[in-house]
Amino acid sequence: MAELHMQCEPLAPLLGTWQGTGVGHYPTIDDFTYVEELEFSHIGKPFVSMIQRTRNRVTGEPLHSEAGYLRALPDGQLEFTIAQPSGVTEVHLGTMRTSDSSLVVELSSDQVGLTPTAKEVTSVRRELTVNGTKLISELWMAAVGYTELVHHLRGELTRQD
User: Fold this and answer.
1) pTM for this one?
2) In the beta sheet, which residues pair with residue 17?
3) Spatial contact of 105 and 14, defined as CB atoms under 8 Å apart
């Protein structure tokens, strides 16, 4: 495996496979629970790749997936690009905070792209918090008629490798 790029060293706590459960809600849908798997990896360049998959916690049916790249910049800032099969793309700008035992990544959308058939999404905010072997993933979005960010997802995952 390639050596982690020095700009990505603060992101090292994210690397690996994470699994757990979460809850979702939004004013336009019924509340739901899900099982999530998040995988962060690298190839030695100044970015970390991400693949995310969720399934319905009750039925096991697939719910959502996305893939992206978290780019570490020389000044400690972050850029995150994400593509979803639903026709939504996101470009996020953000920051990271580290301490001896935790990493917090905060990201806010700079641009949201939509295919002609995608549901309306105008803004997204994401937060990833790693503390040891636990990762909390949260997402807020403004979509389908809501102009303000509304909390949508919270997943609690455990490192698998």
Assistant:
1) 0.95
2) 39
3) yes
Interior CA angle at 17 toward 13 and 19, to 5°? 110
Q: What is the DSSP secondary-structure string of the chain?
A: -PPPPGGGGGGGGG-EEEEEEEEEEETTEEEEEEEEEEEEE--SSSEEEEEEEEEETTT--EEEEEEEEEEEPTTS-EEEEEE-TTSEEEEEEEEEEE-SSEEEEEEEEEEEEE-TTSPPEEEEEEEEEEETTEEEEEEEEEETT--S-EEEEEEEEEE--
Q: What amino acid occupies position 153?
A: L
Give mean pLDDT in consecutive 10-residue pieces for the chain, a chain of 161 residues: 93 97 96 97 97 96 97 92 98 92 95 98 98 97 95 98 81
Q: Closest Cα partner for 100 from 131, 69, 74?
A: 131
Residue among 35, 5, 41, 1 at smallest CA distance from 20: 35
Task: Provide CB contacts within 8 A for 23, sequence distance 6+.
Answer: 31, 32, 33, 34, 153, 154
Is-contact 22 44, C-beta < 8 A?
no
pLDDT at 1: 77
Report pLDDT for 136: 98
Q: How many residues does the structure list for the chain? A: 161
